[in-house]
Design goal:
Elements: H1 4-25, H2 33-40, H3 44-55, H4 59-77, H5 82-88, H6 94-105, H7 109-116, E1 138-143, E2 146-154, H8 161-173, E3 183-187, E4 200-206, E5 218-222, E6 225-233, H9 239-254, E7 264-267, E8 280-286
Antiparallel strand pairs: 1-6, 2-4, 2-5, 3-4, 3-7, 6-8, 7-8
Protein name: AraC family transcriptional regulator
InterPro entries: AraC_E-bd (IPR010499), GyrI-like (IPR029442), Homeodomain-like_sf (IPR009057), HTH_AraC (IPR018060), HTH_AraC-typ_CS (IPR018062), Reg_factor_effector_dom_sf (IPR011256), SmbC-like (IPR050908)
Domain HTH araC/xylS-type: 17-115
C-alpha cells in the first residue's frame, strides 16, 4: 500500500507534469502564473516553489529554455528572418534576443545560423569528406545493458523535450533521480524518410528491475553490445548534423554493420544546469557482432 506522503508526492508529480506539457505545447500562449497554477490545481502562492522543487527550474526558465531551443532549430532549419525568430521567442528586440541566445548557445544568432545551417545543400560537407575531416570522433565501446522507464513521444525529434519534462516529475516523485540515474533518448525512425509528425522516440531514465510500467511510463530494454559512440558537444539542435556525418561518412568507411536495433542518445549533463553550448551527448549506434 502506498503511504499518504508517497501518494502526495505522486499527485504533485502528475500535476506538475500537466503544467510541463502545457508549457511545451503553448509557448506562444498564456503562461501566466494564474493559468499555470490553475492547470496544477495549486494555489498561486505556492505553485512556483512546488514546480521548482519538482523540476529543478522555474516555470519561466522552462519556457525560456524551450523557446531558445525552438529558436535555435529555426535558425539552422529555416530562412526566417532573425527578427521574426526573436519575436516568436518572446524578445522585444533583436539585441535582447542576441544577448540571451549568445549566453546560452555561445554564438550570436547570425553566426550560429552560418555554422549550423541544415537547409538542403547549405553548409553540408562534401560527399567525399571522410571521417578525419569531421569535428566529431567515434570510438568503439562495449556498452552495458540498460533498462529504461520511458514516455513515448510521437512527432518531431526536436520536441522530445516535452516527454522529458513529463518524465522528470514522475521520476522525482519516486526517488529515481539519484546520482546514478542516466537520461536516454531512443530514436526509432529516420527523419529523412518518415514525416516529422510520425517520428517515434522514447524519453527514458535508467531504472532497476523493481520499477514497473504504469499509466505514465513503459519499460524499454536496451541490449548490451559493441557500439559506435559519437560524442557531441553543443546544442541539441545541432545533433542532426552529427547523425548525418555518422551514417554518411563514418559508417561506410568503418567496415562495420549496424545491428538491428535503434540508435539512442545518452545525455551526460542537464540542459537545466548548463548552457546549450556546453551540453554533452553520446550518440550510440549498436553494431552487429562478428
Amino acid at each position: 500500500m502506498i503511504g499518504l506522503k508517497s501518494q502526495t508526492r505522486l499527485d504533485y508529480a502528475e500535476r506538475i507534469a500537466r503544467v510541463a506539457t502545457h508549457i511545451a505545447g503553448h509557448l506562444d500562449g498564456d503562461l501566466s502564473l494564474e493559468r499555470l497554477a490553475g492547470i496544477a490545481c495549486l494555489s498561486p502562492y505556492h505553485f512556483h516553489r512546488i514546480y521548482r522543487a519538482m523540476t529543478g527550474e522555474t516555470a519561466a526558465e522552462t519556457a525560456r529554455r524551450l523557446r531558445l531551443h525552438r529558436a535555435a532549430h529555426g535558425l539552422v532549419a529555416s530562412q526566417s528572418p532573425i527578427a521574426r525568430i526573436a519575436a516568436r521567442a518572446g524578445y522585444g528586440s533583436v539585441a535582447a534576443f542576441t544577448r540571451a541566445f549568445a549566453a546560452s548557445y555561445g554564438h550570436a544568432p547570425a553566426a550560429y545560423r552560418r555554422r549550423g545551417r541544415l537547409l538542403p545543400g547549405a553548409g553540408r560537407p562534401h560527399e567525399e569528406d571522410g571521417p578525419m575531416t569531421s569535428p566529431w570522433t567515434v570510438t568503439l565501446q562495449p556498452m552495458s545493458a540498460l533498462r529504461l522507464a520511458a514516455i513515448r513521444h510521437v512527432g518531431p525529434y526536436m520536441e522530445i523535450g516535452r516527454a522529458f519534462d513529463r518524465l522528470m516529475p514522475w521520476a522525482a516523485a519516486r526517488g529515481l533521480l539519484g546520482p546514478g540515474a542516466v537520461t536516454v533518448g531512443v530514436y526509432y525512425d529516420d527523419p529523412g524518410s518518415v514525416a516529422a509528425k510520425d517520428l517515434r522516440s522514447d524519453a527514458g531514465i535508467t531504472v532497476g528491475p523493481e520499477v514497473e510500467d504504469d499509466a505514465t511510463v513503459h519499460i524499454v530494454p536496451i541490449a548490451a553490445g559493441t557500439h559506435a559512440v559519437l560524442r557531441h558537444r553543443g546544442p541539441y539542435a545541432e545533433l542532426e548534423r552529427a547523425y548525418d556525418w555518422l551514417y554518411r561518412a563514418w559508417l561506410p568507411a568503418s567496415g562495420h554493420e549496424p545491428a538491428d536495433r535503434p540508435p539512442y542518445e545518452i545525455y551526460r549533463n542537464d540542459p537545466r544546469e548548463v548552457p546549450a553550448q556546453d551540453l554533452v551527448t553520446d550518440i550510440c549506434l549498436p553494431l552487429a557482432e562478428g
